[in-house]
Amino acid sequence: MIGIWHVLFDCAASKQCWVAAGLSKVIERRMERFSEAKALMHDICTNEEREVAGWNEWFFAQRFNQHTARYEQIQQHEVWQPPVVGWLKCNVDAGFHDRGQTTNRGWCVRDNTGQFVCAGTAWDIGSHSIIEAEAMAMLEAMKAAIHLHMERVSFESDSLIVVKAVHAKHSGSSEFNLLIDNIKNLLVLNPKFEVKFVKRQANSVAHLLAKAANSWTRRCLFYVIPPC
């Protein structure tokens, strides 16, 4: 069964609802400190104002009821799809380790036959928001692709917020938006790069790499499949 944490905090639909409800900051700053949904929700209800805590209780219940069944139905059908002939596909993901003390990133490149080409991982001490970490993963993967002289690359992320920000016409001055601007600049310089959204289930290889990033040095590049 799909985990409650994923339904409430990892899935793109829930993240969009946080933004719409004005709850992004309330939730994101706690995601770095808690690893269990129950503990995070308890902290909100204990420390936030009554109106915020009450809205979150309703929100969590609604997201769980609406999405658990749907995700259980589609999870087994969401699989990685190869790029068209002549292109490479690079899946990227990010996460946290040691209760949010380190920010991990991972990416993996495969060809149109599904064959492994290369992969990379990185981790840093210090916390970021989840969307900042996802943008960092995308940016690092693009820089690696340029360094390796790759030309036709489709980059996939399971962060809908990051993908929409990359395709948006306007941006702001936050740390997240600065990362997005750097990604946009690389896309301009490399017109055969593209950025797309993919469901979490089809992004599992990058997710595993990000999760295992702390097993290696801070920056790693693999030309054979890493043992993670």
From TrEMBL:
InterPro entries with a match to the protein in the record: RNase_H-like_dom_plant, RNase_H-like_EbsB-rel, RNaseH-like_sf, RNaseH_domain, RNaseH_sf
A GO MF label: nucleic acid binding
Superkingdom of the source species: Eukaryota
Domain RNase H type-1: 91-213
Classification via Pfam families: RVT_3
Listed name of the protein: Cytochrome p450
Native source species: Trifolium pratense (Red clover)
High-level lineage: Eukaryota, Viridiplantae, Streptophyta, Embryophyta, Tracheophyta
